[in-house]
Amino acid sequence: MIAIGPALASQPAWLKAVSIIVGTFILEDVATVLSGVAARAGHVSIALALGALWFGVAVGDLGLYGLGAAGARWPYLRRFLTLPKQERTQDWFSKNVIRIVAISRFVPGARLPLYTACGFFRAPFLRFALTAVLATLVWTTLLFLLAMRIGGWLLAHQGGWRWAGLAGFVLCIVVVGRLIARIQTVSQ
């Protein structure tokens, strides 16, 4: 979803879907915003964009769980994991997996350490996966609809400056997420 324009509109649907999915692995909120704007501009269908977003984000979330589980088995991988600093027990993660997953989906910067910790401490996978998928459906859809609304306004009213407005909107999403993540890190 790097380019939003006529070149994107002329691409086959499968390539659009793959672009969106890959984008979610890089920066999922940016991929969501750009997909929403592209859908609003008519360059990609809403169904294709949302389906690809949901799939990419859910696969990424399950991958974080898998990374944590692999880190629990192979000490070499542990040094690459960002786990909560306070010692948590397997019991605590098992009992609170639904709450952990649901809340961390809506708090920027929380998913990486908490989802990998769920895998590391062997929280029940089925509860983790179902909660991650449901939270993804809600969060991604809300952000997508917001991006369609704001992106549509920018495309309609900003003339030649619309691309600067879109870049500012995307940058705002990234900066706010990073700022919240940094605040969380400092408070831990």
Automatic annotation (TrEMBL):
It is a multi-pass membrane protein. The chain crosses the membrane at residues 13-34, 46-76, 126-148, 160-181. Residues 32-145 form the VTT domain. It is found in: Cell membrane. It comes from the Bacteria. Keywords: Cell membrane, Membrane, Transmembrane, Transmembrane helix. It holds the Pfam family VTT_dom. InterPro entries: DedA_domain, VTT_dom. This is VTT domain-containing protein.
